[in-house]
Amino acid sequence: MSKRILVIGAGFAGMWSALSAARLLDQQGRTDVEITLVAPDPHLHVRPRLYEEGPANFRAPLTEIFDATGVKFIQGTVERIHVERRAVDLTDVDGQSSTLGYDRLVLATGSRLFRPSIPGVADHTFSVDQTDEAVELQAHIRSLASQPDTPARNTVVVAGGGFTGIETAAEMPARLRAALGEQVRVKVIIVERNDAIGPDLGAGPRPVIEEALGSLGVTSKLGSGVASVDAGGVTTTDGQRIESHTVIWTAGLRASALTAQIPGRLDALGRLHVDRNLAVEGVPGVYATGDVARAATDHEGNHTMMSCQHAMNLGRSAGHNVAADLLGLALIPYSQPKYVTCLDLGPWGAVYTEGWEREVKLQGAEAKKLKHQINSEWIYPPRADREQALAAADPLRIVVA
Length: 401
What we know:
Elements: E1 3-8, H1 12-28, E2 33-39, E3 43-45, E4 59-61, H2 63-69, E5 71-82, E6 87-92, E7 97-101, E8 104-107, E9 111-113, H3 121-124, H4 131-143, E10 155-159, H5 163-180, E11 187-192, H6 206-216, E12 218-222, E13 226-230, E14 233-236, E15 241-243, E16 246-249, E17 253-255, E18 272-273, E19 286-288, E20 293-294, H7 308-327, E21 340-344, E22 350-354, E23 359-364, H8 365-378, H9 386-392
Parallel strand pairs: 1-2, 1-8, 2-5, 8-19, 10-11, 10-16, 11-12, 18-20
Antiparallel strand pairs: 3-4, 5-6, 6-7, 9-17, 13-14, 14-15, 21-22, 22-23
Helix pairs in contact: 1-7, 1-9, 5-6
């Protein structure tokens, strides 16, 4: 009787989990184990690029690569996980409900932008979190030219001065001018509740970030958060009013709500605590990876970030280990001690850092070239060639992006 490894999610972590599991099964010559992946869309949505122009183009088809490597794809959504009987309830693309059993499970359902219950945030803000949301923002920006020339029309407010907020804000002056005309005086304002831009990025790259934003004409309102948003703009927590027809929310992520259906320990972001093999603590047969996993990256006390950089390697490790667990083979502990960041700073360039202290190694045009290579090459799926795809899924092949 065949066994089943079930992967939920087709993002970076889910895709690489399926391919890595297929790699080990192929090496062992096992044809009695089925790998099934369930996701709403048979594409990898290249989420790290959604702050750029043309977000509808940032996706890569997965059907051919899954066919080449023997991964069964089900287009649908998992509604409920029953760990006590190792089964899930799902709804397929046609709206039909069914139950699917598994022997081992990999949860790789990622994260979503967190919108707090601040008045107006749900109804009056845009985002670059998901493809459809980024497409909506692009259409809105292009439509601004049909509105009367007012300060509100010509102003973009970016709520959140973290990684995504900075990258988004750095793109906005050029995108606004392309929509409204080079002669229009545009404003882009980052609202950040902390006293420094990029609070999670540390002091290392901050002077570079401030220089780049300043040269692009992006200003920051620090030490004050968003109190409310309406159709005409933002009111900050210190009472200032910023008139704007384009408010982009970038402040914070939360893990997929499916993590709450697994009886494991969750962190403040809703991520499941996992051991060094990415198995969910105290829940036999269940692994978590990517943005739904809180995993140690090294022995120095550092843990994974909700980032593509970590998700790809977490996926390779989870896929190998879930298959090794099922086959009774040795597991390979996840380890990713090298940490880098490459922050896009729009037309100014980029800044590249290494280490958790984020020591600046490259900046400006040189870093921008690296960022372009990461965004357009390194994070995309391999070719739909069985041998190449399985080789790329090696859990010891650490990719830094």
